[in-house]
Amino acid sequence: MRAVSLIELLEDRIAPAAVTISANGKTATYTDSTGDMVQVATTKGKFTAAQFIFDPNTAGQLTELALTGDSAFTGAKISFTVSPSMGSSSVVNVGFINATNLNLGSVTIPGDLGGIDVGGGATGNALGKLTVNSLGAQGAATQGGLSTVSTVSNITGSVGQVNVAGNVDGSITMQDYKNRPGTGNIGQLNIGGSLDGNTSTGAGEISFTGKLGTAVIGGGIEGGSQNSSGSIAGSYAELSRIGSVTVKGTVPDNPNPSPFQSALGTSILGGAGNSSGGILAVTVGSVSVAGDVDGGTGNASGGIQGGTRLGKVTIGGSLIGGNFVAGSPSEANSSGVVFGETVVSVTIGQNIYGGSGLNSGEVLAAGTLRKVTVMGDVTGGSAGQASASGLSGTINAQALGTVVIEGSLIGGNLVSGDANQTGSEDGAIISGTTIGNVYIGQGLAGGTGPSSGMISADNGGLGTLMIGGANAAGGNVVGGAGASSGTVSVDGPIRNVTLTQDLTGGAGTGSGLFQVNGAINSLVIGGNVTGGTADNTGTISVFGLLKSASIEGNITGSSSGATMLSDTGYVQADGIGTMRVGGALTAGTAGSGGLDTSGAIRSTVAIGSITFGSLVGNATNPAIISAVGRANLAANARSDVAIGSVTVTGDATYADILAGYSTDTQNGIAPLGTGVSANAQIGTVTIGGNLTATNIIAGVGPGASGFGTAGSAALGGAGVTDLPSIISKISKVIIVGTVEATASATDTYGIAAQYIVSARVDGTPLALVPGPDNDTFADSSEHRLPDASGDVVLYEV
Fold first, then answer.
1. Residue 51: what are its φ and ψ, rounded to 5°?
2. Could you tell me the sign of the dihedral formed by the alpha carbons of 195, 197, 198, 199, in that order?
3. Is 624 in contact with 611 (CB distance < 8 Å)?
4. 637 neighbors 725 (Cβ within 8 angstroms)
5. Are 660 and 675 contacting, i.e. CB atoms less than 8 angstroms apart?
6. What whole-number distance in Å separates Cα of residue 31 and Cα of residue 60?
């Protein structure tokens, strides 16, 4: 509670001559410090001169109207009116109204009120309406003579309306009525100016324990150096609620505007104080902000928080994370954040920017986040430490509904040499379980921070993912220099994936990667899949069935140098239904360090049908298509079609089409994969152009010098499936063009199975002996192509 004045303590019978009381006690008149005539009126109770306490050093400045202790004023409507003198401003400033333990009907002052203590009377309705020009703006200037100068207003119970035409520089603290939790309510809060915590006169804070019905701020909300300064803050301990908050304008001053500030200006600005410049309560219905929401250096500053539930949030500008001051990495944590356990929807008219503070510039739900729409980009910052991911510039929830980003998702960057700015998981969409749908209009780009520029569902699936479509140039997923940057990682199935342009690996290990621990119903890539300069880049890895896939451009593996490089330009799945590659499957060239799985498509189960424009390998490394075969075969099964059909509309050069081979390359020791099934079968292989240096193999292992030699035999030994009821088979091979020999006199290639039903080259059928195990080396009945000296051999084992 406010302290009474020193004058009142000394002698409350002293009546300053400056005030005149009417005969009925309903009005009091005095001349204020500017020479204006001021009339104070009441509808209940009777004024006494002793209740009007003036500044002993400033004539006419009313420092306190002391009503406490006089119950006759219960329910009174107190109003100040001004009869202006020549050239005056028609306002009157009042230091303090003391109505402790009284409930008032209303208070109206056409000027600044330093503070008011009211409420705690017979009921919980402390004050019907408070109407002032400003609150706490004059600070100590209007409170001369008071033993304690303060711009904090204490209201015990509820207030119907608070109307402030200008700024709130002081504070309003709603207190519970008779210690009954949640009884400090505000029906309507209307501030024509700003809630300004960045002043020397007060904290600019509205705090309450119960419910705030509606709040409309004509200016902005600005935090300062004090904790909770410049805030609308409901008590978390007492289940506080906010119906709606509307912030229409911008903050009164912003001495260090963010470089990311939008043209709309900053509407909510965090300060150096923790929880400064914010809106928070246990539940929040809706929040509408005209401009930017910008975090400060204080933790949890510049934010919107609904503890258990946050309804509809609309930010016209950008959400901007805060930055810590150099050498102070504990600052700016969770600054510039929209948070709730459950969040209904968040719409951001421009961009999201992460800062250097951990979890800064974040839309976060501890539970469910139903929908997020960002009309611009989501860009990660530099946040991150050795013990904590940065998570700046992120959309993050335990369960995520629909995410729409009209621009790009851009990964954050580390600051070289700074262990407190690692840029980890900055610029990301993250769910602890499932994600409904994600639409990104432009693209996804990794940064130099690890796991930056990432879409992740840690323990659940994703509905539809679409990247691109906003314009012709968009639609790329590009890995960065950070490990696992520019990635999609989903621990569950995905219904549909559409990428209108390219998937490109970067310099970071695991960058430019799609990794799905579940099935994909449909995958469409409008451009190319290209490996990067590190392992596992430009890769699609599906631990489930890839039911349908279409890649309009090329799949291109990377070349290695003096260091081993693996898994680039690579598609792997636990079964492929149908797949079309409009361009070429191209392998990289092996350097001295070796190359493992560059330009390859492998299935751990079967492939239904697959089509290419061309297959392009090289003498150091082939383009590979492989599949193991059907899983869980019955003991008496009669067929095991590992690859239903392969169609190449152009040429096949230095390629391997392998049935019965796993994805295990034994770290490059077995570059074709490991032969695991002697039962594997291939339906039809069609090469629309010429075939050069290419193997087409079903259930057969190489000889000492490779395929196409007498030592080549059916797969066997430990770990190989070989049911007596099934023989390996190729039903049909069609080479529309010719078989071309290489310049080497020593290399050989094979078309081999236990049974090859038919083959045609350049329109001419080969004269194969009907039945299995006939066209063999043992019988000297193998077929060399294109002629007796050719290096491609068709044979049965």
1. -80, -10
2. positive
3. no
4. yes
5. yes
6. 6
Q: What are phi and psi of 378, to 5 degrees?
A: -115, 115
Dihedral over Cα of 772, 777, 778, 781: its sign? positive
CA–CA distances in Å: residue 575 to residues 276, 526, 604, 643, 662: 54, 22, 6, 10, 12
What is d(CA 378, CA 427) in angstroms, rounded to the nearest whole number?
A: 6
Q: Are strands 783-785 and 681-687 parallel, antiparallel or unpaired?
A: unpaired
Query: What pLDDT digit, counting tens, does each position of 389-427 carry?
Result: 999 999 999 999 999 999 999 999 999 999 999 999 999
Q: What is the pLDDT of residue 200?
A: 67
Q: b/e for 593-606, b at 16 or more Cβ within 10 A?
A: ebbbbbbbbbbbbb
Location of structure tokens 């430009």: 538
Q: Split the chain (797 residues) into runs of 10 and give each run's mean pLDDT.
A: 41 55 97 93 97 94 96 97 83 97 97 96 92 94 87 96 97 92 94 90 89 98 95 93 98 88 95 96 98 97 97 98 93 97 98 97 98 98 93 98 98 94 97 98 97 96 94 91 98 97 98 98 98 98 98 98 97 98 98 97 98 98 97 90 98 98 92 96 98 98 93 95 96 98 93 98 96 93 93 97
Of 681, 684, 664, the residue nearest 672 (C-alpha)? 664
Rg of the chain taking only CA atoms, in angstroms: 38
> Which residues in 290-336 belong to E strands, given as ranges?
292-294, 303-315, 319-320
pLDDT digits 0-9 by tens, 155-166: 999 999 999 999
The 10s digit of each residue's pLDDT in 312-332 is: 999 999 999 999 998 899 999
- Asked if 94 and 62 count as a contact pair (C-beta separation under 8 A), the reply is yes
Residues pairing with 154 in the sheet? 117, 173
Residues in the chain: 797
